[in-house]
Amino acid sequence: MVTDAKEAARAPELAVLSAMAHGGSPEGTDVLQALFGALSTIDDDQARLYSDFVLMALPPAARLSLEVMMETGTYEYQSDFARKYVAEGREEGRAEGETRALLAVLAARGVEVSDDARERITNCTDIEQIESWIRLAATADSTDVLFG
C-alpha cells in the first residue's frame, strides 16, 4: 500500500496498482492522494491512462470518496493535466445539473418532452443555452417555444 507521495512519485506504476487494490480501503484517501502526487511527475498521456485504469477499478464507494475529495478541495492538484480535467469535469457536471433543472421545470409545468427534444436538451453542453431554455421553460407550454 503506497500512501506516501514521494514514494508514489518514485514508482508511479506501483502507486497505480496500490490505488487499484487499496483505493476502497479505510486508507483509500491517502492512497489516492499519493497517486495524484505520482501522476504529476509523469507525462500527461501516461497520467491520463493511469488515472483511467484506477477510476475503472475503484469500487463505487471509493469513487464517491474521490469525488467528495475533489469537490471539497482537500487535494491541490499539482499537474496541468489534473487541473484541466477537473475543470472540464466541473463544467460537464454543471451542464448536466442545468439540464436536469430544465427537465424538472418542464415536468413541473406538465410540458411533454419528446424523445427528440430530450435528446437535444441532454446533448447540449452550452450552459448559456441551457440557462436560456430554463428561462423560456418557466412560461412555455411546449418544447417548441424553447427551440423556436
Tell me about this structure:
This protein is an all-alpha fold and 148 residues long. The chain is built from nine helices and no strands. It has helices at residues 5-10, 12-22, 28-39, 44-57, 60-72, 80-108, 115-123, 127-137, 144-147. α2 (12-22) runs antiparallel to α3, α2 packs parallel to α4 (44-57) and α6 packs parallel to α8 (127-137). The chain starts with a helix and ends with a helix. The model has no long low-confidence stretch (mean pLDDT 83).
Descriptive keywords:
9 helices; single chain; 0% strand; 148 residues; mainly alpha; 74% helix; elongated
Portion in beta strands: under 5%
Helices and strands, in N-to-C order? HHHHHHHHH
Please give the count of helices.
9
- If you compute it from the alpha carbons, what radius of gyration comes out, rounded to the nearest whole angstrom? 20 Å
Binned, the helix content reads over 70%
Mean pLDDT across the residues is 83
Structural class: mainly alpha
Distance between the termini: 57 Å
Unreliable parts: none
Please provide a brief summary of the model.
With 148 residues, this protein is mainly alpha-helical. It is 74% helix and 0% strand.
What is the strand and helix layout of this fold?
Layout: H1 5-10, H2 12-22, H3 28-39, H4 44-57, H5 60-72, H6 80-108, H7 115-123, H8 127-137, H9 144-147
Helix pairs in contact: 2-3, 2-4, 6-8
